[in-house]
Amino acid sequence: MKYLSEFRDAGLVNGIIDQIKRIVTKKWILMEICGGQTHAIIRYGLDQLLPSEIELVHGPGCPVCVTSLELIDKALAIAARPEVIFTSYGDMLRVPGSGKDLFQVRAEGGDVRVVYSPLDALKIAEENPDREVVFFAIGFETTAPANAMSVLQAKTRRVENFSVLVSHVCVPPAMDAILASGRNRVQGFLAAGHVCAVMGYWEYPPIAEKYGVPITVTGFEPLDILQGILITVRNLERGNKVVANAYSRAVTFEGNRPAQEIIKQVFKTCDRNWRGIGMIPRSGWCLRPEFRAFDAEIRFPVSQIKSEESRDCIAGEILQGLRKPFDCPAFGRICTPANPLGATMVSSEGACAAYYKYQPVRQR
Amino acid sequence: MTDEKESVEFDGLICPVPLAHNSRIVLGHGSGGRMSRDLIEGTFFPPFDNPILRAGDDAAVLDLDNGLRIAISTDAHVISPIEFPGGDIGRLAICGTVNDLSMMGAIPLYITASFMLEEGLAIPRLVAITNSMRAAAEEAGILIVAGDTKVVEKGKVDEIFISTTGIGRIREGVNIYGRNAQPGDVVIISGTIGDHGIAVLSARGDLGFEANIQSDVAPLNSLVADMLQGAEVSKGVNGIHVLRDPTRGGLATALNEIAVQSQVSITISEDAVPVRQPVLAACEILGFDPLYIANEGKLIAIVSEDCADLVLASMRANQLGRDAAVIGEVTSGPPGKVLLKTSIGTTRVVDMLAGELLPRIC
Question: What pTM does this model have?
């Protein structure tokens, strides 16, 4: 397929691998932020091709994995209400809350529908004026513009039966939190290309400078990822703590300004609880006060829901890049995609699911 | 930025244990993947247990007293929408059962059909469906010999569900079972994968864009007949070891089933698997893997190496197998595992579909 197969070309892939092997002189630990990149790495077996000096650790960039238990419990409570049509991206349906998941709520009679866009949810609201339609607005900066747009349009078109349960998280504060942790091992970052397509990469130079780590904006095809690794390793070897862009066909420094404007118009920065990591100050977006009317957390009586996580798997440490899925005693034995113990196994972008699906047998 | 704080207090080990969905049926139980298998093995096998059922093939094989072997299969069809590009629920109901019988090397003979109809269904639509069933039955050379009709209140079924049961006579000398794959065997697919699943998604409006993709729904008995002839089965050659139609759960799930049944490893090559460009494009956009998308007119053949060329040639001579391709081999690697050689030369595991097929979200 044009513009795609070129980026999966075996000859070009091996060419970059050779370049990486030529320049690497010592061990380096890189983190790819985005779950989409984790999946591409494991799916194409890129880690099998890299020299042993380079260790990739998998970052917290899977929105399904980091959405807090408390918000999922709130989603379950709202979705179970008879007047509600609860709409969500498909992956969220399998993420376990405290007692059940959205699939279970649906099986028990809740009206839970998978949508591909929040604007589809808005359409459902307009078609069902006698029902309350709630959209589970999860995700990083990538999904934020469309989610913001749905709220703006709901306000403009006076769709009063529409609301959003907001769980937005932002990449830069998470990178900052990982680097600030005393247990940090990460020496360089592959920044998430899709997030940067929206936000640009003007937020990263202060992080690179503060912690002395190179950051490379990286895409999702095998060639993109290896190019990102090559540039990051080169910068590490040379001691350049700079931000580079290895995904220039999609990302500019400024990013998508109109999209950023819409986000700013609808959302404001707030503290956010990350599943597996904990509270990261100023790491999320919530609705601005003027859009309170569309806030599902206010519209429905869920403020009393306070959920605590149990402690049965190591998803938290995997999300921080401290451990690998294989380090977990439950991995592949009692924890599988069909019976996940942790969110990293649930989501199609979760690191455990990636390892489970794609890793060769010898490593299982 | 978080300049005001120095370090985050990590919570450490965190993760809730979810329900394993063993208290209620959820949609994933109908995915054709691992959840379906667990439901069958946990709920249906124990009360009905017998060796014929346990074989776990597309159709049951019955040895009758006079040396005659019969294949019997039953299938419920609940597709939505009931009309889709390339077919409708009627054609699907016939082909599904014909194909299940064909996968045992049987000649499909007779089919029965029961109809669950929703109050309010327009009779002209029902007529269109029955005409489509008749056409498919003529194509497959079978007769629809008995039926049943039930009508339920509006909302209790979605327009129409059709359940079909078929029987077929297994040809002499044929020995085709899911357990028969052997190391050294060659894996063949009869054509492009994913056409049916993407066509149905497209018809449902789930793609959000136009896709010119037709379902591949077709009766495969003529293709199987040509293959058996090509492999000279009538002369006592047992070169065709396994046949399977990769329906729900797709090629990946069907190969996993065979690998488990035969206790062998199967390695396929990503570049060798034929996929149409529009299907590939739809999968790229939605985050699907074509290996997991349903087919209704394709079969996997696992054949001995020495008759692979004959089988492949006979498949390509049939319209339904014109794009047939060798996609891999059976090995003595880890039993029950399916591996894929990627286009860039690495190897990864291809697992069974877990639950419901879900799109990625960002």
Answer: 0.84
Please tell me whether residue B61 adopts helix, strand or coil conformation: strand
Best mutation target among A13, A88, A94 (most B Cβ atoms within 10 Å) is A94
Domains of chain B: 57-170 (3.30.1330.10), 178-349 (3.90.650.10)
Q: Which range marks the domain in which residue A48 is found?
A: 1-326
Residue A355 lies in a domain: no
List the single best residue of A2, A62, A98, A103 to mutate versus B (max B Cβ within 10 A): A103
Residue A332 lies in a domain: no
Q: How many domains are contained in chain A?
A: 1
Task: Please indicate whether, in this complex, the C-beta atoms of A44 and B281 are within 8 angstroms of each other.
Answer: no
Residue A363 lies in a domain: no
Instruction: Say if A18 is an interface residue toward chain B (CB within 8 Å).
Output: no
Return the residue of B nearest to A359 by Cα. B348
Residue A47's CATH number? 3.40.50.11740
- Of A166, A183, A138, A148, the closest CA to residue A35 belongs to A138
Residue A252 lies in a domain: yes
A2-11: list long-range contacts, CB under 8 Å, 24+ apart: A4/A221, A4/B284, A6/A223, A7/A219, A7/A221, A7/A222, A7/A223, A7/A224, A8/A44, A8/A221, A8/A222, A8/A223, A8/B343, A8/B344, A9/A223, A9/B344, A10/B343, A10/B344, A10/B345
Residue-level pLDDT at B2 = 37
pLDDT in tens, B219-244: 999 999 999 999 877 676 789 999 99
Enumerate residues 6+ apart whose C-beta is below 8 A from A11.
Answer: none
Beta carbons of A173 and B348 less than 8 Å apart:
no
Extended beta strands in A66-161, E state: 84-88, 111-114, 132-139
Q: Which residue of A has its CA nearest to B343?
A: A10
Whether the ipTM is more than 0.95: the answer is: no
A contacts of B359 (beta carbons < 8 Å): 89-91, 116, 348
Give pLDDT, residue A90.
83
Tokens at B175, concatenated: 């020995």
Q: Is the pLDDT of residue A326 over 80?
A: no
